[in-house]
């Protein structure tokens, strides 16, 4: 396409690239290719001058010379590829390998058992409880984290006395180590002398102490509450920065057109906040699905597996019962669960992202 | 005993001279891993330093390097990782239920291949505890179990004698419950060494069994626990308690009685104004002998090379000398298991150990019949206990569920 163009009329992307080419690399990266580029016959922005360059190491292989552009492309991709292979693909494949082997305490390698571990775990009622609990934990946590986070962000979007100071304080739960916050919450929720029960009692809302960990409903309530508390600042801070990016004049214009506060929020702020909101929700899902430490410290999956999540169940199988293969299978099921959630999430939001 | 040590020494000297040929420097380094760390373990950490120093002085060819890891889930995950990488320490201390699991992977040295062991000098329960499938894999050098602690002031204020039967325990625990404190506290969480460990004296003393849970004897024991919870005589949060929280409640006057082990003697003695005593755990029918779960750690020798294994064996035999074992008992707060060490130890030991020793006379080694399956059976039974005490299932129904799970585990699923 651009082969006919004189070199001083290169498309801007290539022109920009040729500047960077001076630094050392000498081909066009994928992102800088003009649309419709077919991978062959790419024009040289520096034409003949390149040939005049005296430096071409004599050791350069013939293959490299003829496939130079591929080699260079590869060189750019390689660091990321190596990183992904070592830190993502290998553990993932290794985890899968463990899930199809009969493994015990020492998880070196064991006999291949096919999908046996998956079959056992799918038919195990605890796994089903854990799957259901994970779904409830996820949905309820995200709804409240996001809506409360948005309310907090909207509140701080206006300037008022001490607003900056309070805004920096609101991040504290996010900065707290989960071990510390979970321990504090377990003390607060104690039936004997716990501050929550004392408070409810002094308000005459309850007459006898509530034991928060003696039913799966209450145990789930506590771990979800704590997870929401941890997640609010994260949502609030990101949504706050999203709100800051929305120009005030848009809302002013809407106000002049007669839109009330709710309509301004609903039809101006919310649509413009959508890209940030989508990212916040996605990160929230990731953080929530992998929640582990707070749950272990608060309920340890109890009572009677009543607040068992996929993450804690996988851990218990592998490190308490020493059924490492089945623990790996549950871990992989959690991964598949995440992939399904992510798939539907991306499908449901793709159009909006493009629009935004 | 001395003869055994001497035999061990000769064997070690012989094997060391063989090692000299290959090992540069001529010294054998033993790496040692226990969960006794300087910050968390009290007198035993310091005593082991002294012990190892003395051993090095009398065995100039051996150097000991400590690589201790705090007692946490991390301990076992590290051991598992080292085992699969073939990098276990030369001397490894394990909580006794873990020995069969490690031994089943063939990473521990069968001790009788290294020479005559000190096992015959130990008590009967320890002779069983040291073995897996008939092979000796370690030295259980000290032991413990659990008994009933009571707050003397609270009991005498209510004019109550320490209970000896289940009926008394239930009545007394109810009578001792008021707005200030509960009648009793013990661990109810389903975790390793938590509720099942605490439940064993009730279950087994009454003729129940971890593998026959639907018998009346087993269900009766669980019914007692469910009744204690139903009557409000125990803080219902106890299903989230390991051994630490009951001790904290008892020390803070929030529980009149507790079931716990002698490892808390030191902490309890340091609580000002707390006047406490210990008795055996109550029984269902008078005359039953209380069966205590056998606690304590086992010192093992992971497989490495003959010279190192021999040197490690030398160290273990050194530790099994009566005088050393007596000191190990004193500094761990446990009871030494070498028979000849007991008289030395009891000269200075508190008489409060007596109920523990009486229960250990009928001690139950958790892995004796279940072996490597113990952790999974423990987890299945632990769930049933929680289910019954929170009232989710009746004791009979909870144990029927657990029995099905235990059967499945025993069938090899």
Can you characterise this structure?
- The complex is a heterodimer of chains A (356) and B (413).
- With 356 residues, chain A is mainly α.
- Chain A contains 16 helices and no strands.
- Chain A has 2 domains: 2-55, no CATH class; 116-355, MetI-like (MetI-like fold), CATH 1.10.3720.
- Chain A has helices at 12-21, 47-52, 62-66, 68-99, 116-123, 125-156, 163-169, 172-175, 178-188, 195-202, 216-244, 248-256, 261-289, 293-298, 310-320, 324-355.
- In chain A, helix 4 (68-99) packs across helix 16 and helix 11 (216-244) packs across helix 13 (261-289).
- The two termini of chain B are 44 Å apart.
- Chain B has 413 residues and is of the alpha/beta class.
- Chain B has 2 domains: 2-140 and 297-333, 3-Layer(aba) Sandwich (D-Maltodextrin-Binding Protein, domain 2); 147-293 and 367-410, 3-Layer(aba) Sandwich (D-Maltodextrin-Binding Protein, domain 2).
- Chain B has helices spanning 2-22, 43-58, 73-85, 99-104, 124-129, 152-157, 166-175, 195-205, 216-230, 244-251, 265-269, 306-319, 322-332, 341-346, 354-360, 367-370, 374-389, 395-410, and strands spanning 28-33, 62-66, 91-95, 131-132, 135-136, 138-140, 142-143, 147-151, 182-185, 255-260, 276-279, 297-300, 335-336.
- Chain A binds chain B through residues 104-108, 120, 186, 190-193, 211-215, 298-300, 302-306, 316, 319-323, and chain B through 73, 76-77, 80, 83-84, 101-102, 104-105, 107, 182, 189-192, 235-237, 239-240, 249, 254, 372, 375-376, 379, 383-384, 386-387, 390-392, 413.
